[in-house]
Each structure stands twice: as structure tokens, then as C-alpha cells.
């Protein structure tokens, strides 16, 4: 029997509010270091159309790498399975910003969720246009998915990463040397940094994730992706969505999830729920410490799992 979700959300919010060890807020993007680590939000959009929220569920935060899910969805729509000639589908077992595998693997990133893979996806999404076209498309897409036109980009966060994103510059230049980044690096990174700087609340993010719990359908009936593609995006979230902690997330939580260094996690229970949690402090792998704990608590109490 599914427990009372509303009471469960309240107890998760209480537990996370009282936690003393909250991890460390990301500081390598200076603008993110300013965020108050005491915040915690959760939103659950259920397949039968309910929305349950708790804590700071309506506070906007930087979605960062969670944007890679939406960027991948758009890129697959443009080039289909040809994408897999330029990006792999295997967990990397390395940090999200690692460069080590790229030399041996000929500039082909392991998967679309590590930074190198997401930079190739951004290159695909640029498609010969200016970054503002690709960024505009991405914003329209997340606004459509969540049914909320107020979603916007935080230009200070994008600028902050543009001036400090040396690792991403290295990754992009390295892949350009292999011919796997095809546009000028500054245009590709301009696209990538802006998609990462999109701000959404837990409520907006859970709403945006509904197509992944509904076999690729928007709740308004429109088809976003085919059922097979929704399943594959979920499979990649499960196997690669938490970088070198993806195995641990699958072990502890057991559902597809994608994290971001802003402290958000989008998690999908196929056929049941799209969940967003947010707590800015990160663990050593760059994933939200309490966000992961909250999802584990939710999964244990509900029995939600893909296993
Ligand atoms: O490229 C970066 O480093 C950031 N814009 C995004 C990284 C990220 O969110 C990793 N996630 N946990």
C-alpha cells in the first residue's frame, strides 16, 4: 500500500531540515558559492496528476547538469541515433569533469551526462546557428514541459562559469582536436554554460520531468519522445546520471536520477512519479548530499523502484 504521500513529504522536510551534515555548496562556480545551504525543497508530480510539495519547493535554483537531460532529448530529436556515433552510453566511473578517458577513446565521451558528453550534445544542438538560437530553443522546451513561461536563465551564473570554466574549455578544445566538436569552442561553451544556468524550482522541475514517467508523453497529450526513447533516457539517467556515484545511487534509491551541482536532482519513477529535490550542499561526487538521502527515504517508504 502506498503511504500517505503528503505526510511522507512533511516528514522528509522535517528530517532534512534538522540534518547537521549538509555537504559543501559548489564553489568552483563562484556564483553558486553564494547559495544558502540551509534550504531544502521537494516536489512530486504523480502520474494521476497530483502535485505534492514541501520545504522550499518554489525557490528557483541553478539546474546545472540536470539540463543535460533536456539537452539530450533535443539532440536526439535532431539527429536521432546518429548521436551515438559521437557520444557513448557507458558509465565513466570518473568524475563529471574528467578528461582522462578522452585521449584513449579518441575524443568520444563515455556518455551524454558527463561534461565532455554534454559539450558534444551542445555542439549538436547548436546545429550551425548562433548560441542564442539553441538557448532559446532549450528555454522554450523546458517552459513547454513544465507549462510555466516564467523559467529563465541566470546570466550572472552563466557569466561566472564563462570566466572560470577552464576544465570545460580544455574538454571542448580537446574534443575539437579530434573533430568531435565541430563549432567554435566559445559558441559551444556559450550554449552549454547558458543551459546549465537555467533556474527552476522543484515544482517546475518535477513538472518538466513528467514526460519521462509517462512513456514520452506530455500530460496535455502531446508526444515529446517515443516510449522507447523515454525508456532509454531513463536508462542513461540510472546508469550515468550521478557520474562515479551512479552505482551507489541505483543501490540506495533504485530509480533513474540526474543530479546537478546546484544541488538539484530530478528522479523518475516510470508510470508513477516525477520527483525533484533540491538541497545545495554536495557530497564528494558533486551530487546533493541531502537530496540523495531524501530520495532514499522516499523510495524506501513508497517501495518505488525500477527493480
Ligand atoms: O560544467 C559544469 O561543471 C557545470 N556547469 C555542471 C556540472 C554539474 O552540474 C555536475 N553535477 N553534479
Bound molecules: 6-diazenyl-5-OXO-L-norleucine
Q: Main sheet, how many strands, which sense, barrel?
A: 5 strands, antiparallel
Question: What's the total helix number?
Answer: 13
Strand content: 5-15%
- As a percent range, the share of helical residues equals 40-55%
Pick out its properties.
307 residues, alpha+beta, Beta-lactamase, 13 helices, binds 6-diazenyl-5-OXO-L-norleucine
Description:
This protein is of the alpha+beta class. It folds into 2 domains: 160 residues, 3-Layer(aba) Sandwich (Beta-lactamase); 134 residues, DD-peptidase/beta-lactamase superfamily (Beta-lactamase, 3-Layer(aba) Sandwich). The protein contains 13 helices and 10 strands. It has a 5-stranded antiparallel beta sheet, sandwiched between helices. A 3-stranded antiparallel beta sheet has the order 4-6-5. Strands 1-10 form a two-stranded antiparallel sheet. A hairpin with a 4-residue loop joins strand 2 and strand 3. Helix 5 packs parallel to helix 8, helix 5 packs across helix 9 and helix 6 packs across helix 8. The longest helix is centred in the middle third of the chain and has 16 residues. The site of 6-diazenyl-5-OXO-L-norleucine has 13 residues, from loops.
Gist of the model:
The protein has helices at 5-18, 67-79, 100-104, 115-126, 131-146, 155-164, 166-177, 185-196, 202-208, 210-213, 227-240, 246-252, 289-302, and strands spanning 24-25, 41-46, 51-55, 61-62, 152-153, 198-200, 257-259, 264-269, 273-278, 281-282.
Ordered list of secondary-structure elements with their pairings:
Layout (H helix, E strand, L loop, with lengths): L4 H14 L5 E2 L15 E6 L4 E5 L5 E2 L4 H13 L20 H5 L10 H12 L4 H16 L5 E2 L1 H10 L1 H12 L7 H12 L1 E3 L1 H7 L1 H4 L13 H14 L5 H7 L4 E3 L4 E6 L3 E6 L2 E2 L6 H14 L5
Antiparallel strand pairs: 1-10, 2-3, 2-9, 4-6, 5-6, 7-8, 8-9
Helix pairs in contact: 1-13, 2-4, 4-7, 4-8, 5-8, 5-9, 6-8, 7-8, 11-12
Bound molecules: 6-diazenyl-5-OXO-L-norleucine.
Amino acid at each position: 500500500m502506498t503511504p500517505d504521500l503528503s505526510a511522507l513529504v512533511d516528514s522528509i522536510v522535517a528530517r532534512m531540515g534538522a540534518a547537521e551534515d549538509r555537504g559543501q555548496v559548489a564553489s568552483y562556480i563562484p556564483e553558486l558559492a553564494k547559495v544558502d545551504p540551509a534550504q531544502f525543497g521537494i516536489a512530486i508530480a504523480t502520474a494521476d496528476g497530483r502535485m505534492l510539495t514541501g520545504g522550499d519547493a518554489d525557490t528557483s535554483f541553478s539546474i546545472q547538469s540536470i539540463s543535460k537531460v533536456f539537452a539530450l532529448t533535443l539532440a536526439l530529436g535532431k539527429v536521432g541515433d546518429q548521436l551515438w556515433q559521437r557520444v557513448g552510453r557507458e558509465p565513466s566511473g570518473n568524475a563529471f569533469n574528467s578528461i582522462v578517458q578522452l585521449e584513449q577513446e579518441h575524443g568520444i565521451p563515455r556518455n551524454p551526462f558527463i561534461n565532455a558528453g554534454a559539450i558534444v550534445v551542445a555542439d549538436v544542438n547548436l546545429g550551425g546557428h548562433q548560441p542564442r538560437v539553441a538557448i532559446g530553443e532549450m528555454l522554450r522546451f523546458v517552459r513547454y514541459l513544465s507549462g510555466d513561461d516564467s523559467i529563465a536563465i541566470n546570466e550572472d551564473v552563466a557569466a561566472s562559469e564563462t570566466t572560470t570554466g577552464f576544465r570545460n574549455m580544455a574538454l571542448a578544445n580537446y574534443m575539437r582536436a579530434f573533430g568531435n566538436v565541430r563549432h567554435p569552442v566559445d559558441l559551444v561553451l556559450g550554449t552549454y554554460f547558458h543551459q546549465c544556468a537555467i533556474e527552476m524550482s522543484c515544482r517546475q522541475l518535477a513538472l518538466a520531468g513528467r514526460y519521462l514517467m509517462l512513456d514520452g508523453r506530455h500530460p496535455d497529450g502531446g508526444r515529446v519522445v517515443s516510449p522507447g526513447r523515454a525508456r532509454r533516457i531513463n536508462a542513461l539517467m540510472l546508469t550515468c546520471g550521478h557520474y562515479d556515484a551512479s552505482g551507489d545511487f541505483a543501490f540506495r534509491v533504485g530509480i533513474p536520477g540526474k543530479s546537478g551541482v546546484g544541488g538539484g536532482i530530478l528522479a523518475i519513477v516510470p508510470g508513477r512519479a516525477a520527483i525533484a529535490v533540491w538541497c545545495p550542499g554536495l557530497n564528494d561526487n558533486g551530487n546533493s548530499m541531502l537530496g540523495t538521502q531524501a530520495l532514499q527515504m522516499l523510495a524506501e517508504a513508497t517501495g518505488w523502484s525500477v527493480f
